[in-house]
Write a structure and sequence with these properties.
9 strands, Lipocalin, 8-stranded antiparallel β-barrel, alpha+beta
Length: about 120
């Protein structure tokens, strides 16, 4: 009986340790802490891109094969917002392990990216 209990506990521990991370919505404070001073690398539709988020609020978006563009970013209590050419767009952000998922509220489109430490927008 004791051997069965030990095997059962070991099996449960193994399942817990190997379980995939669960996606969760980030708060504005979590978004800011995660992005400030870091970059992301991902796909937005058919375009591979890298973005850097300066802690002071500037941001650089660099789609592969195009020139980088500059804008501004901020967070609300619940969203990430960026301003490009005087137009602001806001997104919900989710985290699943090392993946950051951008959710476009109006369309429901989701765009996964990977967090990269520091400023990395070069291709």
């Amino acid at each position: 009986m004791r051997r069965f209990a030990v095997l059962t506990i070991a099996a449960l521990l193994a399942m817990t340790l190997n379980a995939p991370a669960e996606e969760r919505k980030l708060t504005g404070a979590e978004i800011h802490n995660l992005l400030a001073g870091n970059s992301v690398h991902g796909m937005w539709g058919q375009s591979e891109y890298k973005s850097y988020f300066d802690p002071g609020g500037a941001t650089t978006y660099h789609a592969k094969g195009r020139d980088p563009s500059s804008g501004y970013w901020r967070t609300t209590e619940t969203q990430y917002c960026s301003t490009w050419n005087d137009h602001e767009s806001c997104y919900d952000l989710f985290q699943d392990g090392d993946k950051i998922i951008w959710l476009v509220p109006d369309s429901g489109n989701r765009y996964p990216s990977t967090l990269v430490k520091g400023n990395d927008t070069d291709f």
